[in-house]
Each structure stands twice: as C-alpha cells, then as structure tokens.
Specification:
Length: 661
C-alpha cells in the first residue's frame, strides 16, 4: 500500500445487488479503496447449526476484489443468530440482576458459553479456509466492539477456573480478598459467586462490599472476551499465517483492559465517536491511548461518522470541514487508515439515521459526499509521506485500567472522582502546550521519556515505583496526584503512609484527606496565580518536598496543595487536589519548561500542532483564522508549495496544513 487506506464498513447484503453498481461508481468518485465487509453476517452465512451458505458473502468479496478494493474481512460473530438462541438458550447472557436474556440486540452471547465458543470458532475457521490467499484481503476483523457482561453459571465456572490460575490456593485468594472481613472466608472454590446485585453489590455495579472480588471479576471478564478473540484468530491462522488480525476497540472503554490484548493484536484499530463536536482534545487523548497499546505503532481508524451518529439522545451534525479536520487529526496521531461507518446508509433498524458516505438517495452532490471525495483526493496526493510514521514524544502519561476500576469501585474518599476525566485533563495540558505525548500502560519502558505523568495512579503494582524513581534519578520529572499510591494489585491498602511506595519519590506524607461536594471550592494559591481545588483535598506533610502552592481555606489553609521534591538529578511533583484547568496547566507547564518541551505554537488559540515522521500537522480547531510563522523550512504536502522558516502561515478555520521537512 502506497497511501493511507480510505473507506469503511460496507454492508451490501442489506440491499439488492443492483444497488451495488451505484455503490462502486460512487466509491470511484470518492477514492474509496478499502472496504470492511461481513461484520454482522452470522445469520446469513450459517442459517442453521449444520448449514453454511457463503453464496452472498462470496459475491460481496468477489465484487470488491474485481473492483480493485482492499478488503478487511470480518468473522461476523458479534451477534449470534436467532436459531442459536432458540436451540441453545444457555448461550444468552444473564444480567447483573440475575435475569436470563432472550434473543435480541447484539453482544448477546456469554463469552464463557462452550456452545458460543465452539460455533464462533468454527465460523472463523471456515472463513479462513474459504478466503485465505485472496490477495484483496488485507486484514481480518474478529467480532465487533467487544463488550458487555454476563453472570451466568458458565461465567461462574470460568471465573473459578481463572481464580485458580491466578492464586493457586484458597489461602492466597482469601488473603488477597481480605475475607476475614464480614465472615467471608472461602473454604472451597465452588463457594465463589460472580459479584452481582444478588451477591456483593448494592446500588449498581460500582457499589460492592468487597472491591477485591469485583476487581478480579472485571479482570476476568476482560480476559474472557480476549479468549474469544484468541479462539477466532487461532482458527484463522490455521489457513492464513500472515494477514493481520484485529478487532475494533472503543477508545477509553472501561469494561475491557485493552492493554491486556496488546500481544494478541497484529494491529490496533478503534472506532472514534466523540461525545460532542467541541472537544478535539478528547480525540487527541484517545488516539494517543490507542497508539500506545502497541508501543507507538500506527493504528487504523476503523470507524467514524462522516456526518452524524444515531446512538445518543441528541446527535449533532459535523459542521463543514470537520470531517476533514478530524480525519487528518487521527492521521497526525498515528492512523494509517481513515475509515467510516458506514459506506451506504441502511434503510431500517436503529442505524437508519446514522451518517453515511452514501445516503439513502444515493446522491453524489451532497455536501457530505463532496467532503468525503475531497478528502479522498487529498489522501492520494499525500501518498506515503506519513504512512508508517511514528509520533515522537518525550512525555508519557500512564493509563491503567486496574487503577480506573479500583478507584471507581472504592467506598471513599469520593465517588465524584472519575479516573478518565482526571487523566484527560493532564493530557490536555500537555496537548495544549504542543508537546508530543504517549499514553502508555504502567508496564511500558519509561527510558525514552523525560517526563512521566501518573495522575490518580491509585494502584501501584510490581516494580513500578522503582521504575518511576529511576526516571527522576536520571534527571527526569515524575508527577502524580491525589488518590495515588493507595493500594496494591489486590486492592488492599499499603501498610505505610500515603502515597505508599511513591512516598520517597514525592517527598510527602498524607495523614488525612477531605472530600466535598462538587460545588465546594478551596482556592489554591501559587503566589502569582490563584486557582481552585475540588472534590478531594489531601492534607500534605512535606518530608523533604518544597511547597509550590497552598490551600487558602479551612483548617488546613496554608498547607501544601502542590509540592516539588528533588530526587536524584530530577524531581517528583505531587498534586494533592483536583485542580481546575488553569491549575493543571500551571503545574504541567512548569514541568515541561524544565525540559524545554513546549511546542513552537503553544498558546495559539484553537491551533493544534502535531508531528509524525517528517510531517508537521497544523490543525485549526477554532472558528477564527490563525496566523503563525513557520518554524522550519518545509514543503506544503498537499500543494507542493515550499515554505521557508519565518514565512507567515495562515490556517483558516477548521483547516489543516501539512508541512513535510
């Protein structure tokens, strides 16, 4: 492939074949070169347990190949057929309240069901045997947007097996789960039940009597769905040893620890559906998170809407230029494919009003289609200048699903603290400062980074504390915040002062903490700047650290809210409260300035500057034009016009400049 892939989900089985001619005519006009097919075709390809029929899928694949399109072929197993639920009712899920579901919706199969695992694996194997070797197939797409939960007997048995593998003995399990509390000591494996509304929970999945049990069940559910992926990938690999196999992730999706899947994916792909049309920082963070799953390798943007979604109460339209802007933003952060859901709008069911490249009328003169075609032409002009390029970064942000889960199922100090929101705020400050940043797991190699930010690192596992100390010892800066260093990997509190194993690096001790309602503010004074702290106010005792900012109110007025500690040749920063945006930007800015990491366009309203390989992307997310000076000699990648250092650059609203060195 000599260019970024362009196309998306195509479901021609949903309409008459005579429509396909129009589809391909319009694909040509839009420069569509890659189609994802077969995502929900299980009922079509297996109409009964002992009957397989690939006639329609054969025609879909043959037509795409004949038209010169690359194919991402899905296994179709994300929703089981109605006959399967009727014949094997145990395959459907049992919900949190203990109700056995009947056939309907999607994500409706228990991942631990032996029947589901057997039949889904058989389907993947048959597809592999049938289509392996087809040169048009450039990737396999297993399942679709894995997710959901089940609490049935199959799940319970699978959970107990998983626990045996993890703990080995009941003594070790009882110690990890702290079961001397409330007379919970287990004396046999089959006494253990999945934590649900019928067992340990009240008021929903995040309110549990035993956080350790629920934490392990969250880990187990993630691993069980990974086992389904592994089943199908292994079946494909029997016939096709080399074509990349992926599944589409959903960004910072709480139920699944995507870092646990990294070793099994040949490439990361994800579906980008931001919560609104106003926060490019949300997408920048999530792109960086997805890129970090496999150590900075490029990913595929598997789905985005060209216009509107259809899954929310209110579905705002992408304004003119946004489709192009956000697509190039994904490329700037590491995407090697720009794909849409969907290529042609379906006529019925819940996604009939979801945006599509081709609408119900099949017109080429709509604004959306014109923008898709214009972007396709730009991608052709860009060629391979960006393809495969890495995004260099000297700043890392740690993201940890275990900390996310443990923090948000904890009884105290505050259920108002949301892990992803805090991490995103620190990422946003780095993004706004124009510094390259990787969002990485806690197991990542930290040696490439001068700065490591670890907001709300609630759980500290293994040798992480020592590895963070090494970053500071060699001259780097490590920052962490309130509610960090609280628990070990079993979710049990450390028998030491808060912040536990991070205490030496941070040079502080936290004896008490105060939690208040969201509208309670305690001003935080930096001397030349007053900001606000909310939600949690830790009362910090410096143990070598220097106060940088202090609380103004309450009995702890004058005590540190932000500290800096000299450690080796570097520093450890501790932020004891949920600072407002100005406070986070002040702290992160000082850390970046210590290492000279602010970008040349930092502070320009609305302008994002990102670097990938030899290309600098200037993306104007604002409603006003932006004028800056070129910071290096370059060439406009899309026009070929040379640019000299110091030349004025005008970036129109929602416009993009690509400058190649």
């Amino acid at each position: 492939m000599t260019k970024l892939r362009y196309g998306g989900d195509y479901n021609p089985e949903q309409w008459p074949e005579k429509v396909w001619d129009d589809d391909y005519r319009l694909f040509d006009a839009a420069r569509i070169d890659t189609l994802t097919v077969g995502v929900f075709t299980w009922a079509l390809t297996q109409p009964a347990e002992d009957t397989y029929d690939f006639a329609v899928l054969d025609r879909i694949v043959e037509r795409a190949a004949a038209e010169g399109r690359a194919i991402c072929l899905a296994t179709g197993t994300a929703a089981h057929p109605a006959w399967l639920a009727r014949k094997h009712p145990e395959v459907t899920r049992v919900d949190f309240e203990g109700r056995r579901h009947r056939f309907g919706q999607r994500h409706n199969s228990c991942p631990s069901s032996p029947v589901f695992r057997r039949l889904s694996t058989e389907m993947a194997g048959r597809l592999g045997r049938r289509y392996a070797g087809n040169p048009a197939i450039v990737a396999w797409h297993v399942g679709n947007e894995y997710g959901g939960a089940c609490y049935c007997d199959h799940r319970a048995a699978g959970f107990r097996h998983w626990l045996r593998d993890r703990y080995g003995t009941l003594d070790r399990l009882n110690d990890a789960w702290y079961t001397t509390f409330w007379s919970h000591t287990f004396t046999a494996w089959d006494e253990i039940e999945p934590p649900s509304a019928l067992t340990e929970h009240w008021r929903g999945p995040d309110h549990t009597a035993f956080q350790g049990i629920t934490l392990d069940y969250l880990r187990f559910m993630s691993d069980a769905m990974l086992a389904n992926f592994r089943d199908e990938k292994a079946a494909i690999r029997e016939s096709d040893p080399g074509t990349p196999v992926t599944t589409n992730f959903m960004g910072a999706y709480r139920p699944i620890d995507y870092h646990r899947w990294a070793a099994d994916l040949d490439l990361v792909s994800w579906d980008c559906y931001p919560p609104d049309d106003e926060h490019p920082d949300w997408m920048a963070f999530t792109h960086d998170l997805m890129r970090g799953i496999r150590g900075g390798q490029p990913f595929w943007l598997m789905e985005q809407t060209p216009s509107v979604t259809a899954c929310r109460d209110v579905n705002p339209l992408k304004r003119p230029g946004i489709l192009r802007l956000w697509s190039w933003q994904a490329v700037a952060h590491g995407a090697d494919a720009v794909l849409f859901f969907q290529m042609r709008a379906g006529r019925g069911a819940s996604e009939k009003y979801h945006g599509a490249v081709i609408g119900h009328a099949g017109r080429a003169d709509t604004r959306v289609f014109r923008e898709v075609a214009e972007l396709g032409a730009e991608l052709e002009r860009a060629g391979d200048a960006v393809l495969g390029g890495r995004t260099a970064a000297r700043v890392a942000i740690l993201f940890d699903w275990d900390s996310w889960w443990a923090l948000e199922i904890s009884d105290g100090p505050s259920r108002l603290v949301r892990y992803q929101e805090v991490v995103r705020e620190y990422h946003r400050a780095v993004w706004a400062a124009g510094a390259g940043v990787d969002v990485v797991p806690v197991t990542a190699d930290l040696s490439p980074y001068d700065v490591v930010l670890a907001p709300v690192l609630h759980m500290v596992k293994g040798e992480l504390a020592g590895r963070l100390e090494e970053v500071a010892r060699r001259g780097g800066t490590v920052l962490t915040t309130f509610l960090s260093g609280r628990v070990d990997e079993d979710d049990n509190a450390f028998r030491t002062d808060v912040p536990g194993p991070l205490g030496d690096l941070m040079g502080v001790r936290v004896d008490e903490w105060d939690a208040r309602a969201a509208d309670v503010v305690n001003p935080v004074d930096f001397g030349d700047l007053q900001t606000a702290g909310r939600l949690v106010f830790e009362i910090v005792v410096p143990c070598g650290a220097e106060p940088i900012a202090t609380y103004r109110d309450d009995f702890y007025a004058g005590t540190p809210a932000v500290t800096r500690n000299a450690f080796g040749a570097g520093e450890g920063w501790y932020v004891a409260t949920a600072l407002d945006r100005a406070g986070v930007e002040r702290v992160v800015g000082r850390v970046l300035d210590r290492h000279g990491l602010r970008g040349p366009y930092a502070g320009v309203p609305g302008l994002e500057a990102a670097h990938r390989g030899r290309v600098t992307f200037l993306l104007n997310h604002g409603a006003e034009p932006v004028s800056v000076a070129a910071h290096a000699d370059a060439r406009n990648l899309l026009t070929g016009v040379p640019v000299r250092e110091g030349d004025p650059l005008l970036v129109a609203p929602r416009d993009v400049l690509l400058l190649v060195r």
